[in-house]
Amino acid sequence: MTNSLLEMRDLEVAFTLGKQDYPALQQMTFQIGEKETVGIVGESGCGKSLTSLSIMGLLPGTAKITKGEIRLDGKSLVTSSAQQWSGVRGKDITMIFQDPMTALNPLMPVGKQIAEMALLHLGVSRKEARQLALDMMAKVGLSRVDRLYGDYPHQLSGGMMQRIMIAMALICQPKLLIADEPTTALDVTIQAQILNLLRDMNHSTGTAMLFISHDLGVIREVCDRVIVMYAGYMVEEAPVEELLDHPRHPYTAGLLQSLPGADKRGRILYTIPGRVPPLTGRRTGCPFAGRCPSATAICAAEVPQMKKAGEQHLVRCHLVAG
Amino acid sequence: MRFYIRKLAALFLTVLLVSVITFLVFQVLPGDPAQIVLGVDADAHQLAELRKTMGLERPAAERYLSWIKDTSTGELGTSLRYQRPVADILQERLPVTISLAILSLGLTLIIGLPLGIYIARRDGKISALFLSVLTQLGVAVPSFWLAFLLILIFSVTFRLFPTYGYVPWHESPLGALKSLFLPALALAIPGIAVVIRYLRNTLLDQSRMDYVRTARSKGLRERSIMYRHMLRNSLIPVLTIVGLLIADTLGGSIVVENVFALPGLGNLLITSIGTRDLPLLQTLVLYIAFIVVCINFIVDMLYKIIDPRIRLKR
């Protein structure tokens, strides 16, 4: 791993519902190195998006960080005021979202939405911002950018809109790009194009990436390292090949088994029984104990700690010998 | 371009249809115009004579066509009650109503839009709650009561404005403004309240949209997000309401004109109905319909300027 760019240490985020606090993220500790691409994978409701929103400082009103640290280049984000955070947001850390059709302002020309970013953070003139936006649009593979600049989002296809989002996110050369399910809402063919684009951008600009997806196949395409999340906890973390070849956590193994593939043709696809427990119904013990095929007494009693299961391989499971 | 042509064609057809309906309604209404002019004890011979000069003997279709021809060339006929050309009467009354409408629209927008934005930004705070209660009141209170209240406060107690009457612009612009300010305010207050409520609700809806989250993730300040992103997205419902308000005030506001004794169209409409002044009444109804249709046309144009996604519905 190279120098650490983003560091999350023991982060806890809780939702306040009524008078009660419900922790939705617990003991989140990980790092993203410069230029590195880290994936977060897990089912819906396991805290992937919440992790990204807490890095952006965009948690919904009912959620708050109750514990822990997020540092960017060694500087704490959690303690910085809303004002300072918005200096980081958009400049050092940017984000692209799942549904590009709704993520763009429908009543502002797309080029202007890109240029707005440069105008805000780079201290350039309107004319320069426009030129930067046009250059960036060309870089993300859009053609006829002069005409496209003045077009409104509804005149573009989903793939084009996601390219616009990517251009917007990268125009200020951020240190970190958070991509929250950036291909989920797109056609499969477009998905591959967008993934290639993101990978190329990561190589050419050196922007580190936090890539969130529920799809291990997509994660494999782009990421150097993977974090598997379950019910608000990180349950496993390893370099992507290592994780795919030697999953140590039963949940990761279950996810891999439920991936369709050529070798599984003709057989019924595996599914993990049960579902992610809701926020208000989380009990003590290992978060996965209720669905784990090999759970034992200790699993229901105690939350396991992350332990080393190999070089750069961490896993949160009682059944794995440390 | 086709959008505008189709909208214009629709406008023209609507006005034509309204003219047919107006004409038919006045054919069906009981009451003989000749009788109204001459009174109940006119003799049959006189009545027949007058009917002939008024052209009432001709078939309805013929009379309709000649009415349309006259109206479109500005020949609006003679008022039965005032015994003067309808066109002259309108020329007198229109400036009052139009000034009133423009003034009250101005007040509505100048006060309503900023306050709507203000309470949307302060949602959940005490000041916003207080204003919300006030807007509730503004919608509920009838305008004649407001008019009396304004007279009591600003004319009787503080003596800032005249209690009633109208000063024409060419006599004294300041006097005209003073005589119109209170009525315009009385007309504007319910509109202000409605605009505030609509704008606030739409802005709050918009604040939950994905593009607002994107704008936040860009690092824009709340202020820029409001004015550069959310406001334009919130204008459509407000525009609809404002369009209705303008059409309403341009048609003459009967209650407020009466309270302030303004010689506007609202007053004229009431008198013409009371005296069955058919030529005048027909023209007024057609005028009001024309105003409504024109305002709708303008509002449609503005929709398209605000939101380029708006297309013709087939």
List keywords for this structure.
A: 322 residues; alpha/beta; Rossmann fold; 4-stranded antiparallel beta sheet; 12 helices; 12 strands; B: 314 residues; mainly alpha; MetI-like fold; globular
Describe the structure.
The complex is a heterodimer of chains A (322) and B (314). Chain A is of the alpha/beta class and 322 residues long. Chain A has a single domain (4-92, 174-315), classed as P-loop containing nucleotide triphosphate hydrolases (Rossmann fold), CATH 3.40.50.300. Chain A contains twelve helices and twelve strands. In chain A, the strands form two sheets. In chain A, strands 6-7-8-3-9-10-12-11 form an eight-stranded mixed beta sheet, sandwiched between helices. In chain A, strands 2-1-4-5 form a four-stranded antiparallel beta sheet, covered by helices on one side. In chain A, helix 4 packs parallel to helix 7 (158-170) and helix 7 (158-170) runs parallel beside helix 8 (188-205). Chain A is globular. Chain A starts with a strand and ends in a 7-residue tail after the last strand. Chain B has 314 residues and is mainly α. Chain B is globular. Helix content of chain B is 76%, strand content 0%. Chain B has 13 helices and no strands. Chain B has a domain at 94-306: Orthogonal Bundle (MetI-like fold). Chain B starts with a helix and ends in an 8-residue tail after the last helix. Classes of the chains: A alpha/beta (322), B mainly alpha (314). The A-B interface holds A 56, 58, 86-91, 94-95, 97, 99, 102-108, 116-117, 120-121, 152, 154, 165, 168 and B 209-211, 213-221, 228-229, 232-233, 306-309.
